[in-house]
From TrEMBL:
Keyword Electron transport belongs to the record: no
Organism, scientific name: Gleimia coleocanis DSM 15436
GO MF terms held by the record: serine-type endopeptidase activity; signal peptidase activity
Active site: 104, 175
Protein name (database record): Signal peptidase I
UniProtKB keywords: Hydrolase, Membrane, Protease, Transmembrane, Transmembrane helix
Transmembrane residue ranges: 76-99
Amino acid sequence: MNKDETSSLPIPKAGSDKERRRYSPQRVAPDSLSTSQMKTLNAGAMSMPFKKRAEAREAQKKLSLSRRILNTVAEYTVIIAVALVLSTLIRAFLFQAFWIPSGSMKNTLEIGDSVAVSRLTPTLWDIERGDVVVFYDAQKWLPPVPEQQGFSKYASNTLEFLGLRPASGDQFLVKRVIGLPGDKVKCCNDMDQVLINDKPVSEPYLAPGSYNSLLPFEVTVPEGKLWVMGDNRNNSADSRAHQSVNGGMVNIEDVVGKVVGVMWPYAHWKNPTNHSPFTEIIGRVDE
């Protein structure tokens, strides 16, 4: 190309900004932003990742808190469920607490005492003379008791079920076993002592001033039955007072268990079992 051809190329107008930018070898940032504004833009751009990380950490904290709450609720749910199962198993097969409502067992058991009853007797171990047992009032020795109503009923039943409150004595009685199946039990000799299979029994646990002869009797205990009496003989409506119903006998199948100790109050702690007065009793009258 010669000099004349080169000089014939069109030359853009110098005053056109659009064309000047198009032909410019590189673009430059507009010079309308100040240095401080540029720093602000750069700082904002750099702060975006940190802001997102902070938001992520906050979300993680909330999630962790929710998980901790759920885990805590789950743990307590498991604990309560296990406690309910254990309480049910303990009450069904091992021990149950009862509250003493009357003075028929004074001075061995006082009104208001809370006692522990082993259900292993008679389930695994036989009942013996001298045992203090709790039994269901299947023969209706007790007068009818008005049933609780409303919230108090459900609260009481729930606490008893959980083992947090002793069962009331409304449908249960507590007495000492005097006669076993086959025993001949008689009242009384000249010393006001009960005779079992013609052997007199000296009972050290009786309340002071108690008299056996207030209600004389002579019975032979049938199979599957027990003859029971309270330690406070002057104030105990026991087998002696209910001979017109089932002969005054208690069905062994109605026995809940054997009293093994007073739990509350601590000052009354004792094991009411006393076999020593019956050690000389040979056995059944027919043996």
